[in-house]
User: Fold these one by one.
Assistant:
Number 1:
Amino acid sequence: MPILELKHVSKIYGAGTKALEDVSFAVEEGEFVSVIGPSGAGKSTLLRCINRLVDATQGAVFFDGEDVTGLDKKGLRRVRTKTGMIFQHYNLVERLSVMENVLHGRLGQKGTLAGMIGHYSEEEKVEAFAILEKLGLAEQAYKRCDELSGGQKQRVGIARAIMQRPRLILCDEPIASLDPSSSKVIMDQLKEINQTMKITCILNLHQVDVAMQYSERIIGITAGHVVYDGPASRLDQETIHQIYQSRSGALITDRAERAV
Ligand SMILES: Nc1ncnc2c1ncn2[C@@H]1O[C@H](COP(=O)(O)OP(=O)(O)O)[C@@H](O)[C@H]1O
Ligand SMILES: [Mg+2]
């Protein structure tokens, strides 16, 4: 059984913007999938429909055997706990320490009171520190997040996601704000987590070359439609042009600037 399956998912935003139209695909446990497509294609909406940050207008999303589209609050909390999310702008609590941000990854699994007063067990702290060590952030553990570089902040974002012990990690443009060398560190770490911890990863990426370098499978979307779903090795120039439509010129500039 696939860990994730989208069946005929469509999303129309309030004003009538069709962000996704009849999107269907399945992802097996342990896959590392990149979603590419021009700005406005529906990539963020797609990821957000998976953990219900956005509600699909039509269709169903099965995660770990259950349809998340019909879940109540409790069920939704369970699904979100199993789904780590990594954002372009990190979404950390900047005034708190690195450790505190990583521990927040465990919030979803706590009772309301323990979560509210920020009570974490010694085991949880040891685990958080071990994750930071693994990601090369041991020295930053007690710094405030606003003292870190962008690349370090994104590593904290990854650590927080791992702290959730997720089955799936969704990354929305994880390297779009980073320089090439920090981008490489982040991509290498995501790949490592995928391979050693068997956590399924789905990444929205703006950079085709990075997607091709790191993922076995690529999903290309244009104007809310899946126009390619297959191995990175079969993604040819013609398909790339089709995905990016008339934006192929911009794409080449982007790739040159952002090559990792
Ligand atoms: N909250 C929203 N309200 C209304 N329209 C939205 C909202 N979020 C995204 N859209 C629109 O949906 C389309 C897809 O957006 P998005 O999923 O952000 O694409 P991408 O991540 O590929 O850039 C765009 O036309 C965008 O303007
Ligand atoms: Mg987006």
Number 2:
Amino acid sequence: MANEAYDYDVLVIGAGPGGYVAAIRAAQLGLKTACAEGRETLGGTCLNVGCIPSKAMLHASEYYEAAAGGAMEKMGIKVKPQLDLDTMHGQRKDAVKGLTGGIEFLFKKNKIDWLKGYAQFTSNDTVDVAGKAVRAKNIIIATGSSVTPLPGVEVDNAKGIIVDSTGALELAKVPAHMVVIGGGVIGLELGSVWRRLGAKVTCVEFLDQILPGMDGDVRKEANKIFKKQGIEFKLKTKVTSAEVKGKKAVLTLEPAAGGDAETLEADVVLVSIGRRPNTDGLALDKAGLELNKRGQIETDHDFRTAVDGIWAIGDVVPGPMLAHKAEDEGIACAENIAGQTGIVNHDVIPSVVYTWPEIAGVGLTEEAAKEKGEVKVGKFPMLANSRAKTNHEPDGFVKVIADAKTDRVLGVWCIASVAGTMIAQAAQAMEFGATSEDIAYTCHAHPTHSEAIKEAAMAVTGKPIHI
Ligand SMILES: Cc1cc2nc3c(=O)[nH]c(=O)nc-3n(C[C@H](O)[C@H](O)[C@H](O)COP(=O)(O)OP(=O)(O)OC[C@H]3O[C@@H](n4cnc5c(N)ncnc54)[C@H](O)[C@@H]3O)c2cc1C
């Protein structure tokens, strides 16, 4: 497709999981490709300050708690762990360095030019990157998202008292009391890290339950499990201000429905109320593009924006803000640019909370499924799963939601130690249009946590074996 008038066939703006994957696929398909990234390393939010460093801290803190909290002793292993936070942070940084360096290697291997700097549109097919005009036949906007600020609460990661997720990954010491504003995925994951390492954690959530968007049963059960672990929840409560006073923060809380205010003192406050698309500084008006009411760039099913030759993917477009969704959109978008048929099935995007136990779901919640028609639901407790029971992991359940008439699986939800791994089979089954019977009659290895998915599928028609 090389065209003399253009510097590139494809220019990707942003090297997060959406952008870097789109760039690699475009190059694999023979397109002359560049990727503009303003950050010093490739990999975007996910690799630098998101999925990867948070999982590095979750993994390490899980081991620490298993040793410190008595879980190991139950299995006959007596240890007295000592926390070396610097080393824990060190392995987090190593993970990030290794993986971001890996993307740089893949760019070189695929002959993708990394244009270092922030890109700004000067017309519908040209951007300025670090003072240089770059013209491309196709431009993919993959600029991702950043933390949504909370009015009245000023984040200062350097000070380390009122922080966002990036600051919360890097705390130099374990806070005595951490207040997490927002009971979503990021708040619960990072709150869990510091609770495991010894902090008292209070989570303030505006809504009446944590984990908005997830299945109702899952939200309730997760709340119970986290409470048992020691996280205190203040639901239906809003934070109206947080002020730094000396080495502490003082928060003002009010009931969401209105009422008397109370104050709460914290050593660290984590603001995690959501993320918003990155579009500032792109000069989208020069390209002729507009944002929707939520500040996102709208696309059609092929990831084309309203302007010919400009495409958009990942957190900057509507849909769940997840790395794997961004990656799949990146692949599909590049394939569409190359004249192939790139498709993402947005009805089957799994989501995972990497706490202990993990929480995962794919497809519709029971509430959403019921709004669409009659459903049959099968549930199986992890307590009755031989592997979970043997491993001392009794918390959680699997729930399969199927269409009452066709038996087609509409959604699967799990709370289990390895729910994030288990959910992949549910996603694959749903992608192939499986019925609950298909899952129930698929042979699952024993003893595995995944057998709980089979049993929950059996429960849809009322015939699980182990309960
Ligand atoms: C703490 C945390 C934990 C998370 N954990 C998970 C998880 O476990 N699983 C999961 O699926 N998701 C997770 N996420 C969400 C995930 O990181 C995002 O959904 C994902 O990174 C989105 O990918 P993206 O490519 O759209 O954008 P991003 O990863 O945000 O990348 C966009 C890139 O574009 C660059 N950029 C922006 N504007 C410009 C410009 N004008 N010019 C050049 N470059 C620009 C930015 O510097 C950035 O590097 C987590 C997020 C956070 C914050």
